[in-house]
């Protein structure tokens, strides 16, 4: 058996590629079966981002939806269940653009049933005894949160007639027919309530001409957290309802009004029934009058069980390896003794299964989310982590931790892994422990990953969920910092090596965590995140139009305080507190969190002198769904994400590991470097130990308080003395794509007696395509300018340049680019100067330098000088590391 390689955490090699976790995966959802014929279907994503409908066959599967169609809708903006199976096995579905069609699965012929650009449809439910289909309809004739109207409608599949049968409530969810077609059930609620605790369950009698009567309130009058109503094949009505802390399953037998709890002794802290924004959750399925299959959740982890309602007993029919995370639209009855279920396990990706429950249950995989087998020997298994907060109020916080795992590598003794924390959206959603290829991409390379379920997450009980009301932006970001501190202080994670990332509300959590706990996090990546709560509230859609009030206004707080609280909890107005590098990813067509949220955040951070990058994908909406865009976003964030987590020392470590032969990474503080003996360097540590080497790698800021060099590289203190002297002078180089001054016949030379620029010179290198103006900043105005921050200096220099040249031509913004220099004794200002690359002058021996916002005087004496943070990291590694090894991390 080959021995394992020794390499620091974060630098392990892995067979799990970016392509394998993005472009080769598919999304599976919405299993359905015709109770009469037994034919079964599900939805599957295509490579172009569209969704098709697939029939399950005895010997495989068959796509039934032509390629020009996509089974999607945008009801409530998030969309709902897109199709239903009719009694004759045809499929009614909502197509992209929100038209309604019927497809014949045998011929693949599609016919349009109804379509109006102002109307949207979802959550279809067929009447097995007639041609009527229930659906949720959304009317956008007045396309504002106050103007949008929702209805439950009945669609006649024979005549295409559409009747609005319920229209008095503000919101409707999950209409359904009883198996004999005589009754229907639905959920509804009104402004300013939320469905989590205010949804009410009603039933009514169905009349064949397309009307209802005898409407009855079944549950929800006492804010009972009612969710996921479902009819059993015998006509029983099931639903989830909170009793005390957790939501249980209840049953009303045919012909009765009495509610009976479905007993599951021993699962007292389990939650049954999906309570989410998503319309159309299917997390349980009655199979017969005796058996019911359910996927309850305990602290974020699913269990798949079959309940015998006659004997009040239950047993597990799924294992954690295959089915530890079952969410949203995932469970459907196939027969009296079998069920279709979609879920992910600890070591297996999301897949569609058939489970036969009688006797010794049998589980059969019908379709996986990828065609390539996942290398299970590289899988890190999740660990349920529950910590007690140190801050007030004292509370338990839960999450799942994946530690680094790679059968081919070990870390050096004493090394600790960096950590990537992922924050879920919602914010009232949660993250489970199912296998996520992106998580394994990290862990197989030596990173730890924590998916933390902050206060407010569902699937953890009522009190846990309700703790977020009035505290959004506070308790959730505090929970992030509590978890990070707990793992670093307990010696499980590298100090200073924690990054954070999230999507949507998780993106907001990322920004808030970087704002409120700047010293805890080394960097972040935010996808479709919220930066300005008030603007989000002003532009949000109908479904979430009351959400912000509940999230930011604690009980008893007057609504007049809302604007003030929103501003206090908006990262946009605290941008100067974000000191860690940040990557923003956003869809240009995002209607839930508009693009200006990211644009203004990026502008504010840049104005404050921070390190931020914004990447916009025009055709994407809320989050990225098309594989090519997900892949591109992953590539864009790869190296920068790693360097943000590792900070400048990561550059030193990465370079040291790749310089050969015999590179050594110092953990001790070095206070003296002697370079007087040829190519031999003698390093002396603060402990008095000495080491010989041929090359030194440094990072700035350095962990060492002070290092003396022989010969002297330059005294850092000299810089501050110089910039106070009368003859203070600094050269700043501006680089451009084109020599814009020459297009107007200008030489690029200018002179001013007022400053801050005293002279400009054309210092371009035309052969290399480097077009530059060198600006001399000097005198009293220069000294005053250098007392300001980086952004103010930059803006002053550019403003002066515009004053001088704008009368002749428009002036573009300068760019950062690689720019060789042959004047090693010249001072170069780091904030506007081009990036200096390896291979320039060898000054004072073989000292290599890489860092962030470094001392400029030291730069002039070093072989490699880099600025601009993550860009610098990428340039150094590109020069020194094989391309296939360059991607060190993925978020």
Automatic annotation (TrEMBL):
Read off the SUPFAM superfamilies from this record.
Answer: alpha/beta-Hydrolases (SSF53474), DPP6 N-terminal domain-like (SSF82171), FAD-linked reductases, C-terminal domain (SSF54373), FAD/NAD(P)-binding domain (SSF51905)
Query: What name goes with this protein?
Result: Uncharacterized protein
Q: Which InterPro entries match?
A: 6-blade_b-propeller_TolB-like (IPR011042), AB_hydrolase_fold (IPR029058), Amino_oxidase (IPR002937), FAD/NAD-bd_sf (IPR036188), Peptidase_S9_cat (IPR001375), WD40 (IPR011659), Xaa-Pro_dipeptidyl-ppase/CocE (IPR050585)
Per the UniProt entry, what are the Gene Ontology biological process annotations, in alphabetical order? proteolysis
Q: Where is the Amine oxidase domain?
A: 651-877
Q: Name one GO molecular function term.
A: oxidoreductase activity
Transmembrane stretches in the record are: none
Q: Which organism is it from?
A: Fusarium coffeatum
Boundaries of each Peptidase S9 prolyl oligopeptidase catalytic domain copy?
437-631
């Amino acid at each position: 058996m080959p021995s394992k390689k020794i390499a620091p955490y974060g630098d392990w090699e892995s067979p799990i590629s970016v392509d394998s976790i993005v472009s080769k995966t598919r999304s599976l959802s919405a299993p359905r079966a015709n109770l009469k014929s037994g034919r079964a279907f599900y939805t599957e994503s295509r490579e172009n981002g569209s969704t098709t409908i697939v029939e399950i066959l005895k010997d495989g599967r068959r796509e039934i939806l032509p390629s020009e169609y996509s089974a999607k809708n945008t009801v409530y903006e998030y969309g709902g269940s897109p199709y239903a199976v009719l009694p004759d096995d045809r499929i009614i579905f909502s197509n992209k653009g929100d038209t309604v069609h019927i497809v014949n699965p045998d011929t693949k012929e599609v016919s349009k049933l109804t379509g109006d650009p102002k109307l949207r449809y979802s959550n279809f439910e067929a009447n097995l005894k007639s041609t009527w289909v229930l659906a949720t309809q959304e009317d956008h004739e007045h396309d504002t949160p106050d103007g949008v109207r929702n209805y439950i409608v009945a669609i006649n599949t024979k005549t295409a007639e559409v009747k609005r049968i319920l229209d008095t409530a503000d919101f409707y969810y999950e209409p359904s027919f009883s198996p004999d077609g005589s009754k229907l059930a639905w959920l509804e609620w009104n402004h300013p309530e939320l469905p989590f605790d205010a949804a009410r369950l009603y039933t009514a009698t169905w009349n064949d001409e397309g009307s209802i009567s005898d409407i009855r309130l079944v549950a929800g009058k006492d804010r009972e957290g009612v969710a996921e109503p479902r009819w059993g094949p015998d006509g029983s009505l099931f639903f989830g309802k909170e009793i005390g802390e957790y939501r249980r399953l209840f049953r009303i037998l045919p012909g009765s009004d009495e509610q009976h709890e479905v007993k599951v002794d021993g699962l007292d802290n389990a939650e049954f029934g999906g309570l989410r924004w998503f319309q159309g959750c299917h997390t349980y399925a009655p199979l017969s009058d005796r058996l019911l299959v359910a996927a309850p959740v305990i602290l974020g982890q699913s269990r798949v069980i079959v309940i015998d309602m006659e004997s009040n007993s239950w047993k597990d029919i799924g294992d954690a390896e295959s089915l530890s995370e079952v969410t949203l639209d995932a469970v459907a009855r196939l027969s009296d003794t079998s069920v279709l279920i979609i879920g992910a396990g600890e070591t297996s990706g999301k897949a569609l299964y058939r489970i036969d429950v009688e006797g010794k249950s049998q589980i059969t995989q019908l379709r996986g989310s990828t065609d390539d087998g996942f290398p299970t020997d590289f899988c890190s298994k999740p660990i349920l982590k529950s910590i007690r907060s140190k801050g007030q109020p004292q509370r338990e916080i839960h999450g799942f931790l994946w530690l680094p795992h790679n059968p081919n590598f070990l870390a050096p003794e004493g090394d600790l892994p960096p950590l990537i924390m992922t924050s879920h959206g919602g914010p009232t959603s949660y993250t489970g422990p199912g296998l996520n290829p992106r998580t394994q991409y990290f862990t197989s390379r030596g990173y730890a990953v924590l998916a933390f379920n902050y206060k407010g997450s569902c699937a953890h009980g009522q009190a846990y969920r309700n703790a977020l009301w009035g505290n959004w932006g506070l308790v959730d970001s505090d929970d992030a910092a509590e978890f990070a501190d707990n793992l670093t202080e307990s010696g499980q994670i590298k100090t200073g090596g924690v990054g954070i990332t999230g999507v949507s509300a998780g993106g907001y959590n990322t920004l808030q965590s970087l704002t409120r706990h700047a010293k805890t996090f080394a960097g972040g990546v935010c996808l479709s995140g919220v930066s300005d709560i008030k603007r989000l509230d002003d532009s949000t859609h109908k479904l979430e139009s009351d959400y912000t009030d509940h999230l930011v206004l604690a009980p008893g707080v007057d609504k007049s305080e809302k604007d003030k609280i929103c501003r206090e909890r908006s990262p946009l107005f605290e941008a100067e507190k974000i000191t860690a590098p940040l990557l923003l990813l956003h869809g240009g067509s995002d209607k839930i969190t508009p693009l200006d949220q990211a644009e203004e955040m990026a502008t504010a951070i840049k104005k404050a002198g921070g390190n931020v990058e914004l990447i916009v994908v025009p055709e994407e909406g809320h989050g990225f769904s098309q594989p090519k865009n997900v892949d591109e976003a992953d590539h864009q964030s790869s190296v920068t994400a790693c360097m943000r987590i590792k900070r400048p020392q990561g550059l030193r470590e990465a370079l040291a590991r790749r310089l050969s032969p015999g590179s050594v990474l110092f953990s001790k503080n070095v206070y003296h470097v002697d370079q007087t003996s040829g190519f031999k360097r003698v390093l002396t540590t603060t402990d008095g130990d000495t080491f010989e080497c041929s090359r030194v790698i440094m990072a700035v800021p350095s962990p060492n308080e002070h290092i003396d060099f022989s010969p002297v590289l330059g005294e850092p203190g000299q810089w501050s003395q110089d910039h106070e002297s009368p003859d203070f002078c600094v050269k700043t180089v501006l680089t451009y794509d084109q020599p814009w001054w020459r297009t107007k016949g200008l030489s690029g030379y200018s002179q001013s007696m007022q400053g801050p620029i005293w002279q400009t010179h054309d210092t371009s290198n035309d052969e290399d395509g480097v077009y530059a103006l060198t600006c001399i900043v000097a005198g009293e105005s220069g000294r005053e300018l250098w007392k300001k921050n980086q952004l103010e200096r930059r803006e002053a220099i550019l403003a002066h340049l515009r004053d001088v040249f704008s009368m002749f031509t428009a002036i573009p913004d300068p760019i950062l680019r690689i720019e060789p220099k042959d004047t090693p004794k010249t001072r170069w200002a780091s904030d506007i100067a081009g990036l200096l690359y390896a291979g320039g002058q060898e000054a004072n021996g073989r000292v290599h330098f890489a860092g962030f916002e470094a001392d400029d005087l030291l730069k002039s004496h070093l072989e490699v000088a880099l600025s601009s943070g993550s860009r610098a990291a990428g340039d150094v590694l590109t020069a020194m590391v094989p391309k296939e090894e360059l991607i060190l991390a993925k978020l």
